[in-house]
Amino acid sequence: MKAWFKRLFNKPDKPAFYFAHIPKTAGTSLIVLLDRYFHADDIMPEQLWRQVKDLSTRKAQDYRFIRGHFGGGGATVLSECPLKNLTMLRDPVELSYSTYEFIKREKNTVVHDLVVNESLSFEDFLIHPDTRNLVSNRMVRYLSFDFNDDPSAQEVFLSPQTIQDLQPLLSGNSSTLNDEQRYHRAKKWIDQAMWFGVLDRFDDAMRLLCYGMKWPPMGDSQKLNKHHQRPVISDVARQRVLENNRQDSQLYEYAQQRFADQYRAMLSDLKLNELSPATEIDKALDKRYQQHYANEYQLIDSADFSCGDVLWGQNWHRREWIEAEQAFFRWSGPSDTSSLDFWLEPHDYRIKISIINALSDSFLDDLTVQINGQTIDWSSPDHGVVRTLHLECPKIVIKDNGLMRLSFSCPEILSHAEAFNSDDHRRVGFALKSITIKR
User: Fewer Cβ close by (within 10 Å): the C or N end of the chain?
Assistant: First the structure.
């Protein structure tokens, strides 16, 4: 699976992709979705400046995907490649409240003790001299940052220790920009980005990204690190947020309008409109992806898929590592049906599927496997939650364009916490390790 993806993304003239993760904008959930389209070796593991020890070493790695809290222009020192930028924006009121709740929960944040010990309300948090900066034009300051033109904007997402560590890069730069100048820099960043989304239209944003990248629709996603209880925000707090975030509000209003225009243009190109149901939009995106793949890539006659590889499919959680086996795995979920696509020459194939965990010993007895919508019988010499499934795919089941879409329908989906008494609230079914397909 890796070789053909390398041919697409590892050419010298190909850019790297950078997801500028503005804190508290659902970036954790989005990164899980984005990571599936890149081989594990092509993703820069560090997501914070304090984790980056040697810039020259990182730059030499030639990563194809960088994601993290590096500011709008910070990632330019992490790659020799031109960058295609992506980000997600959020309503400033919700962003400010989410930041406040996060600081209350997380003991390692700089002002956690202050907020807890002084019992700061959200209203007070917005005007306290030691916390106000954390909720003032956060998006504009984040996106405007780089090491040459606006190094002073880093204070909204870097710790004091990290700023000290980065002084060799920050010293001797230009004078501080005002908020209006930063707004225009951030607006230009949005205009030049390959893609941006707005959080209050998260699912639409994912569809627009899949359209732009010619990817299959992403399927369901589970919002991670989310404050589940809908906040009640007072009029006083709302007014204070707006006073703190004049440029952020202006940027978000601009981004919402631009996003709406782009989404309508996508629907028009797909011969759909804003009244079209989500299922029809996803069908059109899937058709577009299949046409693109069939035209651009050569079919293969075998596949040896591991969870470190690129994954074309829906409803899989993040990669996880098994140290003892030096291998990756993925849990299925959050929906009860998960899928993977393989693109194969027309032959009869034998398929071997390695599963290393499931919700219960009997769970896999009722697992249904389909290929392009047709149920395929499987067998296994094993019992319990660790099994190798064996099945055969006749040539007639493979689509004319070469698509073999393997789908797994689970008898139930539970949270990992409920099934295994953990603190992990992802909804899961079974844990996939690898798939081998041979003639």
Answer: C
